[in-house]
Amino acid sequence: MPMKILVVSDTHGNNTNLRKAIANMGNSLDLMVHLGDFMCSTDIIKELAGCPVEMVKGNCDSFCNLQSAALIEIAGHKAFITHGHIYGGKWGISTMKDIALENGAEIIMFGHTHEPIIEKYPGITVINPGSLSRPRQDGHRPTYIVMTVEDNGNTDFSIVTM
After folding, report:
1. Could you give the angle at the alpha carbon of 125 between the alpha carbons of 154 and 119, nearest 5°?
2. pLDDT in tens, 83-93
3. What is the DSSP secondary structure assignment for residue 18, as one 8-state letter?
4. Is the separation of the CB atoms in 100 and 80 below 8 Å?
5. How far is C-alpha 104 from the geometric centre of its chain's CA atoms?
6. Among candidates 49, 83, 52, which has minimal Cα distance to 66?
């Protein structure tokens, strides 16, 4: 059965759309990754998710003890997760790619820019789910990403606009 991962960022203490994104996943949510600027207790995020959660802190999360970046494994795929502010956001993608590749990661997940992206490069996929509370892209609609890992290990990433 395929694994479903909800990737979110930049909720900024307003968890209304986070609740909706989690509800949209139905009973198929296996993991949630929050890429920072949650601006509330990590326990609240974990309770809302109702599944395992991986988190890093953002530039607005100085109150917590989480790291700004981490390497995680998702169904056999190594991912470098960060809020991205310490690398310059989207202008730091090349630096994040170097770090990921040096550590054997094939996926980079970052937030901070409030603009969703999915970019594929040789050997690496870079994603940013945008923001659930303060979107900045054209149309200014909240977004998140659903990552699917198929039984054969193939991955798929989809931007969901609310």
Report:
1. 120
2. 999 888 888 89
3. H
4. yes
5. 19
6. 83
Q: What pLDDT, in 10s, does the model give residues 78-136?
A: 999 999 998 888 888 999 999 999 999 999 999 999 999 999 999 999 999 999 998 88
pTM of the model: 0.95
Place of tokens 């607005």: 60
Encoded tokens for 99:
């770090």
Specify the residue for token string 């502010």: 85
Residues 6+ apart with CB under 8 A from 133: 10, 11, 12, 13, 14, 17, 142
Q: What confidence tier does 51 reach under pLDDT thresholds 50, 70, 90?
A: very high
Reference 51, options 21, 71, 79; nearest CA is: 21
